[in-house]
Amino acid sequence: MIGYLTIGLLGLLSLSIPVGIVLFLLGFGIDTFFSPFPLIKGLGNLVWSTSNNATLIAIPFFVLLGEILVRSGLATRTYAALDRWVSWLPGGLIHANVATATMFSATSGSSVATAATVATVAMPQAEKLGYDPKLFSGAIAAGGTLGIMIPPSINLIVYGFLTQTSIPRLFLAGLIPGIALALGFVVITMILCMIRPSLGGERRVFSPAQMLRALVDLIPIVLLFTVIIGTIYKGWATPTEAAAVGVAGALVIAAAFGGIGTRMIAESLLGTVKITAMIMLVVIGASFLNFTLASAGLGRELQNFLSGLGLSPMGLILVVVCIYIVLGFFIETLSLMVVTIPIIVPLVVAQGFDPIWFGILMIVLIEMALITPPVGLNLYVVQGARKSGSMTEVMLGTIPYVVAMLLMVAALIAFPQIALFLPDALQ
Predict the structure, then answer these.
(1) Could you give the percent of the chain with pLDDT greater than 90?
(2) CA 401 → CA 60, 137, 199, 365, distances in Å?
(3) Which of 82, 57, 67, 85 is nearest to 238 (CA)?
(4) Burial class (CB in 10 A: 0-12, 13-18, 19+), 333
(5) Which ranges of the sequence are coiled-coil (predicted)?
(6) Which end is more exposed in the chain, N or C (fewer Cβ atoms within 10 Å of the end residue's Cβ)?
């Protein structure tokens, strides 16, 4: 059945059918040919019970928060401010790409939205200042992946919802690995640009007065992040309530900087509806597919298969890592999460691994899927913002950052406390 499922999934995706519809079609197929019960009769109740969950309300709020920040022009201000602080490093403006992506990741919760924001602002600078198009574009695509690691993360909310684990603890667990990945991107960029200075373009140095004045444009993002995360960790608000507070704060910031207007609000709401509808279709479709898979016994079949291999707990983790790397080439990230979590996570937890730690490990692997062809969404987002050049340039530019992600995977496996230190310390 695993073979039929894989062939069906890849075949339907190759026809450019929307992922949510593909998940429903696979569920119908498994119900027809493998399930001993007519599960289709419970579809209505399943759709309602999946969507009628207060935790998922946080998703449209965080999407709206990101939309407001992007469309209010705050991205341009943030990018210009970070340019003054990091462009003196080997690599120059490439570090501003990573730094801006990191800051917007701390508010938007979406990798694709983060990559689109930074690409729109940064790409015009690449040609004007003579940067290598491959590394410059790759840094934007890789920096955008931080949107699903650094809290608040929509993917961590989905993981917590599907595994019934604490979302505040997941947010805490993602903070150190997310910042470490951003620093890793900076370090690997510096090394490459010291070896080949032509990759980094012009290094610019600004006066201390200019750097201090630029801090004013960074205060709103830092303040917004502090309010959102602080209210969650202090117990003053749930993630959903904190997301609503974040939206209100984003509106205040947009008004303060003169970026609010009827058109901006309308475009933000429309973008939120589109993105949220896509996410919910995938989540509901995956819930139905998981329901049919459980009824057909795939979970038992996979568990028996892995048990039959005689793997140690660490061997199981290494196999799971390889599975996610391979599947990440072909399956969109959110779909990959919701399809595999109900099957993989129980097996991993049964071996004594912490579900919070595994959630962060999975997110790093999911991040990698965002910048690996042929389905890496961030590759297409960055290429769409470029005025010239091929997709191959963006793909080649992400290779150093994929290496950094693999090193983070190894570090998390070797030292689980990288993810667990903050949740345990602040419990």
Answers:
(1) 14
(2) 30, 11, 15, 12
(3) 57
(4) buried
(5) none
(6) C
Question: What stretch of H or E contains 62?
Answer: helix 58-71
Structure tokens given for 424: 């345990």
**Residue 6: how many other CB atoms lie within 10 Å:** 12
Digit-coded pLDDT (tens) for 302-337 = 667 776 777 788 988 999 999 889 888 777 677 788
Q: CB–CB of 211/85 below 8 Å?
A: yes
Look up the domain containing 418 and give its range: 22-425
Sign of CA dihedral 227, 145, 26, 339: negative
In a domain, residue 31? The reply is: yes
What is the structure's pLDDT at 129?
72
pLDDT in tens, 260-308: 788 888 888 888 888 778 777 777 776 777 677 666 666 666 667 776 7
Q: What was the pLDDT predicted at 410?
A: 96
CA–chain centroid gap for 340, Å, is: 16
DSSP state of 152: S
Query: Does residue 3 belong to any structural domain of this protein?
Result: no
Q: What is the pLDDT of residue 217?
A: 82
Q: What is the 3-state secondary structure (H, E, C) of 83-106?
A: HHHHCCCCCCCHHHHHHHHHHHHH
Q: How far apart are CA 113 and CA 109, in angstroms?
A: 8
Cα within 13 Å of Cα(175), Cβ side: 18
- What DSSP letter does each residue of 219-248 carry, written as one string? HHHHHHHHHHHHHHHTTSS-HHHHHHHHHH
For the record, the structure tokens of 179 come out as 């910042």
**Is 4 a member of any domain?**
no
Domain count, the chain: 1
Structure tokens at 161: 């919802």
Give the 3-state secondary structure of residue 362.
helix
Q: What is the reported pTM?
A: 0.79
Any domain includes 284: yes
